[in-house]
Amino acid sequence: MRNLTAQNRADIALIVVSIVWGATFLPMANALKTNGVFVMLFCRFFLSAIFMGFVALKFTKKFDKKSVFYGVILGAVLFLSFTTQTYALKLTFSSSVAFITGLECVIVPFMAAVLFKNKISIFAILGALIAIFGLWLLSGATLALGAGEALALVCAIFYALYTTLNGHFVRKSELYLLVFVVFLTNAMLSLVFALFQGSIVPNFDREFFIAIFITTVIGTIFCYFVQTIAQRYTTASKAALFFCLEPVSAGLIGYFIAGEILSIWQIFGAMLIIFGVIFSEFGKQICSKFKL
Fold first, then answer.
1. Could you report the per-residue pLDDT of 152-190, keeping only the tens digit for each?
2. Which long-range contacts (CB under 8 A, 24 or more apart) does 267-272 make?
3. Is the pLDDT of residue 265 over 90?
4. Distance between CA 70 and CA 258 in Å, rounded?
5. Taking residues 123-145, what's their average pLDDT?
6. How far is Cα 223 from Cα 119, in angstroms, rounded to an integer?
7. Half-sphere exposure of 237 (CA within 13 A, CB side)
8. Which residues contact 199 (CB under 8 A, 6 or more apart)?
9. What is the mean pLDDT of residues 77-100?
10. What is the DSSP letter of 222?
11. Where are the alpha helices (DSSP H) in 6-103?
12. With 60 as the cut, is the pLDDT of residue 1 above it?
C-alpha cells in the first residue's frame, strides 16, 4: 500500500464504494414494501445530514458560500437520482434496477466532455463499451423497458450528471461543508414531498431498521464521504467505470440472499463488467505488453 499513488488509493476506495452500494439495493427494496419512497429518503438523508453537520462544524475552516451553492446543486441532482431509483425499486427487481443504473458509466465521459471539455481516453471509451455490453447481458439481453426499468434509466442519467459535477465541484469546495449541504438538500426535498403525500412517519418494522442502518451509516455517510474525497484524485470517467461493479455486487447478493437466479449469460455479463473496469485502468499497459 505504501507504493500506491494517491490516484491508486482513490481508485481502490471507489471500487469498495461501488461494491457496498450494490449491497444497499435489496434491503431498501424490502423496506419499500411497507414504507413510502420519500419517507425512506427523508430518514436516510436527515440522519446522514445530522452526522455530517457535526463533522462540518468541527473541521470546516471557513463558511464558504460557493460550497453551499455547489452542495445545493449536487443535492438536487442526487435527489432526482434517488427518487427515480427508489420508485424503480417498487416496480421491478432490485438487481434489474442496479444493472440499469450502472449505465451511467457510459454517459459520464461524454457528459464531462460536453460540460467541462474533458478529454475522453480511448481506454475509458473501450472499457465503457465492454462494461455496457456486460450490463446488457446482466439485464437479460433485452431492450424492452417496463416502468421500473425506464425509471432506473432516468436515474442513471441523473447520477451520471451528479458524478460529473461532483468531480468538478469538489476541487473548489470545503469538503465537509459540501457533503453536509448535499445531504441536507436531499433531506429537505424528501420532507417536502413526503408531507405532500401525507405523512413522514415510517413503519418501524425490521426491514425499515435494517435498510436505514445499511443505507444511512454505510451507503450514505461512509460511501458518499469516501466518493467525494476520492474524486479529488481521479477522473469522473474512471469513477463511473468503477461504479459498474455496483450491479455485480447487487446481483450476487440477490443470488445468494434473495434467491434470484443468474443465468450463464448474466454471469458472463458480470465478468465483462469487471474486465471493462480493469481495461479502463490498465488498458494502456495491457496493449503495450502485447504490442497492440
1. 889 989 999 998 998 889 888 898 899 999 999 999 999
2. 268/134, 268/137, 269/133, 269/134, 269/135, 269/136, 269/137, 269/138, 269/139, 270/134, 270/138, 271/134, 272/130, 272/131, 272/133, 272/134, 272/137
3. no
4. 39
5. 78
6. 27
7. 24
8. 36, 39
9. 87
10. I
11. 6-22, 25-31, 37-59, 65-91, 94-101
12. no
| Amino acid identity, position 73 | I
Grid cell digits, residue 35: 414504507
Cα angle value 257/242/158 (rounded, 5°):
90
Closest by Cα among 101, 78, 108 to 238? 108
Q: How many other CB atoms are found less than 10 A from the CB of residue 287?
A: 14
Distance CA 279, CA 270 (A): 14
Length of the chain: 292
Nearest in space to 241 (alpha carbons), one of 150, 155, 171, 163:
163
> Rounded to two decimals, what is the model's pTM?
0.81
According to DSSP, residue 120 is labeled P
Spacing of C-alpha 175 from chain mean position: 18
What digits encode the pLDDT tens for the residues 207-258? Answer: 999 999 999 988 888 888 888 888 888 877 677 778 778 878 887 787 788 7
Count H helices, E strands: the chain? 14, 0
